[in-house]
Amino acid sequence: MALNIDEKIYQQVSGNLQGFDPLPDGNYVVMVEESEVRENKSGNGYHLALKLRVQGGPYRNRIIFLNQGLTNNPISLRHLKNALDAFNYQYSVNELDQYASTLLDKVVVAKVTHSKGEEKVALSQISPALLERIQATTMQVAAENKIEKERVVEWLENKYGIRVNAASWIAAKEAILAGEFRVTKADKDNFNEETEEEEYYF
């Protein structure tokens, strides 16, 4: 008997079946890891396939898969436009197969809901208010790890120039937690801002 199991994939998956539980309803700050136009399995059309990784909170590193159909159905087109608007997509929708890669590393909010056993994901841009909260969270993590604000700002400027956005602030927080700033705090668990406002995981 000749098995055909991909050893690389086998080593990457978790043996904990609980890891496959659906994400609870909520708002998740996510980054695009994969973005491409693929042919439907049925061969009757195409879809935009997105792999999104949660950036923080108790569900950090969980994956959200979003497949958006590319048809002339008005409802499908409405969902497609919503997703592309979240990414500030600048090209023709008919050129999506060529420019899907421009969505890589973009950071957006994924609102996850469940209805009748079906998971729905709606994307939206990072609002200025949420960006301020992400900045504040990063600075609080820095303070907890005795990292001066000026060092974080300097790191952001050196790495990202003037393009300081949600992605770069999240990267700064992760760098602090990972020890890139010579963090001395023993406990490097993820920090999730507590707020009475609507909760976002970042």
Automatic annotation (TrEMBL):
Top-level taxon of origin: Bacteria
Xref: InterPro entries: DUF669 (IPR007731)
Stated name of the protein: DUF669 domain-containing protein
